[in-house]
Amino acid sequence: MSPRPHRLRKISNPPLISGFKPYGDKLKQENGPGIFLHLEEYEAIRLCDHEMLSHQQAAVMMAVSRPTLTRIHSSARKKIADAMVNGRQIIIEGGKIFYDSDWHLCSRCACYFNNPEKLTPVKECPLCHSPEFSNVTDFEK
Amino acid sequence: MKVAITSTGSTLESTLDQRFGRCSYFVIYDTETKGIEFLPNPNRDVQDGAGPASVQIVASRGAEKVISGEFGFKIKSLLESLKIQMIVLKEPGKKISEIMELLND
Questions:
Q1: Which of A95, A133, B38, B84 could form a disulfide with A38 if both were Cys (CB 3.0 to 4.6 A apart)?
Q2: Contact status of B76 with chain A (Cβ, < 8 Å)
Q3: Helix (H) or strand (E) holding A81
Q4: Which residues make beta-bridge pairs with B37?
């Protein structure tokens, strides 16, 4: 019998970087193979450690349960710690994910819109050009 | 800039179609030339894959934004990867002419 299908984790934006390479005098040439940091682990670090959200809030944003998020987050921290201590390279790649950008709600015309150009911030509603809009975290159609 | 709007009919008085994949007509509106094109949707009664096929139509016309009442799951990720902005307007009575006026603001 095949295992149950994996539940995909939601990532808002792909990371800017592809990974990290250590440098230093004491570094030997081959300190071990590179560590693969999954995209959902990157997202967990981004939400919990950079945006300072609680595990509950981050779990909602990633569309997983809170215990799952805690597991993803602690796995991410473990991998990063391993990379730092042993001088291994970090490669950000892989994971069971789907992309879904952040959605916004326009205050004037009440339309929902997304931002596919993830690197440029949203300045106005694409429909009525109003600069007033709010962020929606749990938009599902 | 070209905007695609889902429509229930082929006139400016027609209302916004609340579905994307199986809408009756696509309106392609060019905000610069003010040109309007009404395209009947061939995927309306197709059994499967109406969404991705409709995304094809919209993308091939060079639309950068799409306005509809609702986008299905498969359509969302496809439009995201094509970098086409999605606008969801949950007002069934909104006319195409009114939407065009908002865009011209």
A1: A95
A2: yes
A3: helix A66-86
A4: B28
Q: Which residue has the tokens 């603001």?
A: B105
List C-alpha distances in Å: A81 to A14, A74, B64: 22, 10, 43
Domains contained in chain B, CATH given: 2-104 (3.30.420.130)
Tokens of residue A126, six digits: 């694409």
Minimal Cβ distance to A113: which of B70, B80, B87: B87
Distance from CA of B101 to the nearest CA of A (A): 9
CB A21 within 8 A of CB A89: yes
Residue of B nearest to A98 (CA): B77
State whether residue B88 sits within 8 Å of chain A by CB: yes
Return d(Cα B72, Cα B81) in angstroms, integer: 15
Q: Is B80 on the interface with A (CB under 8 A)?
A: yes
- The ranges assigned to domains in chain A are 9-99, 101-141
CA B78 to chain centroid: 14
Strand A103-106, strand A133-136: pairing = antiparallel
Q: What is the pLDDT of residues B64-94, one digit of tens each?
A: 999 998 888 778 878 887 889 999 888 888 8
**pLDDT tens by residue, B19-73:** 888 888 999 999 888 889 898 888 888 888 888 888 988 889 899 999 998 888 7
- Let me know how long chain A is: 141
Q: CA B90, CA B24: separation in Å to the nearest integer?
A: 17
- Interface mutation target, options B2, B75, B76, B81, chain A, most CBs of A under 10 Å: B76
